[in-house]
């Protein structure tokens, strides 16, 4: 678990609270692509991911002065990005429920991964991206936070706003779903562990 | 799943094949500049508030009295000029 150690230095937070642009650059360079990749894989729409990325960073600078000295910027950024995604998704669902007949008239949004993205990806990457894109957003987010962003389960549970136990169960179910999509059968030991967790 | 299971899970290791994604450089720079502008504006505001906070109220009494006297003086001149010209 090394990715989250970047920029979690308390001195960076202190400098950011004082409006230090160099400290901001340090955090921005460390986390911009990671937050964007997370938003892109969650929303599966580049335009939406770009807009949510902008808002995530603007929230950081607007709230910089009120950050607590012990704030860990990685989990903070992923929490904001995740909440923005779910707010956007809820708004979208409300719109679609309100005007279903109009939705078909809008130009279709560019989904991600596009056929081009899949074509240039390696075989395993292509399979994982394609399988991920078919999972529910709840399952996708737990897998991305833990397996790709390498957050600890405790940090990832806090980002998702659920208890560590609920997170472990969701992660286990997400893993099983992903394995099915990738047509990988879990080992007997893994299946037994999953069943034991589900039974609690 | 436990943390040690996550670290050794073969399926999770497949995530290492996923490429990092990023916004275009121009968009990234534009966002950086917007954020710098917000930070600098907040810093200026905080500095301004700090300057006012550091000034003792006693030091403001003199300029305030002088300013008030000037306003009364100018108002009186205008009143007398109006009288002379019959307004």
Could you explain how this protein is built, in words?
The complex is a heterodimer of chains A (200) and B (87). Chain A folds into two domains: 1-112, RNA polymerase sigma factor, region 2, helix turn helix motif (Rna Polymerase Sigma Factor, Chain: A); 123-200, Arc Repressor Mutant, subunit A, CATH 1.10.10.10. Chain A starts with 9 loop residues before the first helix and ends with a helix. Chain A has eleven helices and no strands. In chain A, 73% of the residues lie in helices and 0% in strands. Chain B folds into two domains: 23-54; 56-87. Chain B has helices at 3-8, 10-13, 25-54, 57-84. The mean pLDDT of chain B is 87.
User: What is the typical, i.e. mean, pLDDT of chain B?
Assistant: 87
What is the CATH superfamily label of the largest domain in chain A? RNA polymerase sigma factor, region 2, helix turn helix motif
Q: Which chain pair has the greatest contact? A: A-B, 48 and 31 residues
Please give the domain count of chain B: 2
- Mean of pLDDT of chain A: 83
What does the main sheet of chain A amount to?
none
What structural category arises from helix and sheet content of chain B? mainly alpha
| CATH topology (fold) name of the largest domain in chain A | Rna Polymerase Sigma Factor, Chain: A
Low-pLDDT segments of chain B: none
As a percent range, the share of helical residues of chain B equals over 70%
What is the fold's blueprint, element by element?
The complex is a heterodimer of chains A (200) and B (87).
Chain A: H1 10-17, H2 21-43, H3 46-62, H4 73-98, H5 100-103, H6 115-120, H7 123-134, H8 137-148, H9 153-160, H10 164-181, H11 188-199
Chain B: H1 3-8, H2 10-13, H3 25-54, H4 57-84
